DNA sequence: CTGGGGGCAT
DNA sequence: ATGCCCC
């Protein structure tokens, strides 16, 4: 089980204190992904304006089409108007895109397992360890230049920038690998966190890459304009921010944290403010195999039970086949619908779910697909009846069937690894492809891949993703210690942001300190004299929780009081500025206090997750418990 | 007439 | 089960 004690022994002894706290994060974004896949399938399409069509929407298009004014998410009608010669390919069946997407992730993972997928066409990678390793191996590393673009074209020589420069070389090589092995082009961004890497990757658009240096953080955030452009700020959040009078990133940067807390609560308030400043300590979490498989279809209208039944059967037979290839057994089934409603057109979905009886689940994995499908169809219809009164008129515009709670059948060997199908090489592949199949090869696949320049032992790339998302980010500092020779890397969770000369790089104030002492907590590159000259309210703002590495995301690399008070009284958590707290409305204070009270006992038992599911984590994402074993099982034993 | 996915937190 | 987020 999780053991906090184990960790404390090895972290500082192994991780030298001098080790830099900033990470090197890569973001990869394939160019017009679906269009590229179609152009690979049919090269004749390359010179033609090509659009990928789902129902009435053009979900993406190639660059020939873009030159003629076609854009993403344009209606087919508009696109045809703009460009009558536009060639359309249906893209509702995602099979090929999904397969290619996982090949990309697999390729990246073969260099460093810490890869997080975002949709089908984007991947984050934490290459900090690779960079350190490369730096240590190359004595003449002083004069490394940047590969690709540098945002704003400015370049100061600092140790952190050197590490980003090495990151840019890694990114370039990985993009080259993607092209030579898979025929795919894409962009990459190199920065110190996921937010910035993602934002910068699109700076130069097709098939190029860009580094963002810390000194340009305020520039890139300022140039963003609308808040919707900030990843993590969706439609709803943007609306609520606008109600507060905030429309641009700069507005959010300058907004008093207390205003945000009243609207969003403390955790979200901090997150939003940090995002606006380019701060993001969220770790790159290995995605591994998907948590759920679903299949859906939308249509104008469906009003007959028989049609519903047929559609569900159709969706299920395809989903069961996919599930079968995956190899895991689903233990939960969910049916989702969208109702037609003239007024409430804005998409609200309803769903019902139920356990999948074991005898049905087994039929899925063991190949009795037809039986499984028909039994699942009746399950689905029962769920449908819970939502829709079939005796009255109804109009459905979407049906989705979903398998989740996926568990590997065999704990040990022989089982078709869950991810094996996603990462499996097609046997018909004309080209020799690297086999990343056996457990041994996971740790040494650089041999198979004939890496020329990135001679990084994969062991050095294992950065623990401490605690999975599912175990709750809040308490991921209680994640298990290394159990296979990998050391708990405290620094990992810290992710101290390097934010150049931004005021916000006052990022490491210790909580609950007096102002006079807190000034000593300023970053070394922040001039205390300058700080003292600032108006007091600005000082307070800089020291407020929004500027502190949030407790929920990690520990400080410097000794710091535990995130929650040890005393039995409910005190203000360490990451909360008492001054700011005291300024909150009383009811908000009370709410926060009771929340903290409830969380406290959790500190000692990270497995509190009331879920009756005393899960043996073996079926969760690879990062969940033990990155090695969990990762290994995703590769074909061969 | 905004698609077909996927994720997380509550 | 829903709502938010991402593409």
UniProtKB/TrEMBL annotation:
GO terms for biological process: DNA repair; translesion synthesis. Transmembrane segments: none annotated. Pfam families: IMS (PF00817), IMS_C (PF11799), IMS_HHH_1 (PF21999), UBM (PF14377). Residues 25-234 form the UmuC domain. GO terms for molecular function: damaged DNA binding; DNA-directed DNA polymerase activity. The lineage of its organism: Eukaryota, Metazoa, Chordata, Craniata, Vertebrata. The keyword tRNA processing does not apply. This is UmuC domain-containing protein. Residues 551-576, 595-638 are annotated as: Disordered. InterPro entries: DNA/RNA_pol_sf (IPR043502), DNA_pol_Y-fam_lit_finger_sf (IPR036775), DNA_pol_Y-fam_little_finger (IPR017961), HUWE1/Rev1_UBM (IPR025527), IMS_HHH_1 (IPR053848), Rev_trsase/Diguanyl_cyclase (IPR043128), UmuC (IPR001126). Keywords: DNA synthesis, Transferase. Belongs to the DNA polymerase type-Y family. The keyword Transferase applies. It comes from Gouania willdenowi.
């Amino acid at each position: 089980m999780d053991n906090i004690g184990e960790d404390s022994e090895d972290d500082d002894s192994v991780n030298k204190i001098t080790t830099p706290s900033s990470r090197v994060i890569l973001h990869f974004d394939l160019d017009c992904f679906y269009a590229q896949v179609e152009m690979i399938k049919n090269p004749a399409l390359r010179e033609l304006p090509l659009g990928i069509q789902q129902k009435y929407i053009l979900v993406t298009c190639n660059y020939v089409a873009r030159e003629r004014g076609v854009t993403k998410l344009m209606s087919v009608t508009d696109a045809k108007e703009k460009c009558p010669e536009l060639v359309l390919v249906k893209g509702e069946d995602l099979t090929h895109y999904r397969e290619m997407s996982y090949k990309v992730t697999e390729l990246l993972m073969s260099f460093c397992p810490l890869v997080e997928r975002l949709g089908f066409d984007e991947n984050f990678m934490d290459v900090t360890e690779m960079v350190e390793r490369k730096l240590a191996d190359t004595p003449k590393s002083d004069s490394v230049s940047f590969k690709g673009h540098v945002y704003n074209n400015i370049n100061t020589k600092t140790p952190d920038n050197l590490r980003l420069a090495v990151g840019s070389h890694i990114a370039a090589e990985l993009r080259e690998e993607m092209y030579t092995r898979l025929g795919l082009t894409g962009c990459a961004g190199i920065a110190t966190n996921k937010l910035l890497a993602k934002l910068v990757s699109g700076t130069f658009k097709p098939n190029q890459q860009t580094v963002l240096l810390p000194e340009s953080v305020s520039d890139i955030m300022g140039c963003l304009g609308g808040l919707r452009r900030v990843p993590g700020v969706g439609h709803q959040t943007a609306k609520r921010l606008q109600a507060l009078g905030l429309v641009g990133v700069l507005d959010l940067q300058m907004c008093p944290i207390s205003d945000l807390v009243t609207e969003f609560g403390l955790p979200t308030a901090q997150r939003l403010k940090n995002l606006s400043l380019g701060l993001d300590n969220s770790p790159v979490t290995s995605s591994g195999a998907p948590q759920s498989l679903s299949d859906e279809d939308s249509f104008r209208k469906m009003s007959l039970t028989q049609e519903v039944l047929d559609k569900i059967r159709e969706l299920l037979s395809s989903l069961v086949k996919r599930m079968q290839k995956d190899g895991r057994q689903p233990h939960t089934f969910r049916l989702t619908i969208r109702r037609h409603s003239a007024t409430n057109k804005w998409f609200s979905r309803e769903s019902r779910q139920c356990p999948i009886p074991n005898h049905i689940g087994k039929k899925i994995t063991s190949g009795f697909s037809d039986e499984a499908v028909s039994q699942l169809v009746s399950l689905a219809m029962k769920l449908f009846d819970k939502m829709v009164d079939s005796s009255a008129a109804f109009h459905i515009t979407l049906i989705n069937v979903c398998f989740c709670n996926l568990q590997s059948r065999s704990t040990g060997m022989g089982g078709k690894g869950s991810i094996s199908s996603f990462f499996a090489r097609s046997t018909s592949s004309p080209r020799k492809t690297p086999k990343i199949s056996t457990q041994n090869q996971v740790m040494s696949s650089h041999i198979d891949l004939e890496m020329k320049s990135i001679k990084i032992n994969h062991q050095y790339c294992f950065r623990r993703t401490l605690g999975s998302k599912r175990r709750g980010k809040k308490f991921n500092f209680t994640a298990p210690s290394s159990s296979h020779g990998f050391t708990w890397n405290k620094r990992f969770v810290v992710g101290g942001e390097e934010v150049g000369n931004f005021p916000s790089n006052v990022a490491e104030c210790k909580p609950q300190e007096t102002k006079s002492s807190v000034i000593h907590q300023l970053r070394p590159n922040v001039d205390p004299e300058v700080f003292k000259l600032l108006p007091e309210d600005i000082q307070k703002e800089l020291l407020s929780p929004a500027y502190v590495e949030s407790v929920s995301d990690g520990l400080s690399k410097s000794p710091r009081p535990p995130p929650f008070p040890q005393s039995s009284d409910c005190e203000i958590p360490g990451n909360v500025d008492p001054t700011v707290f005291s300024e909150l409305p009383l009811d908000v204070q009370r709410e926060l206090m009771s929340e903290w009270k409830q969380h406290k006992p959790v500190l000692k038992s990270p497995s509190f997750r009331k879920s009756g599911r005393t899960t043996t984590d073996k079926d969760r994402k690879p990062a969940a418990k033990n990155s090695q074993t969990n990762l290994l099982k995703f590769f074909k034993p061969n």
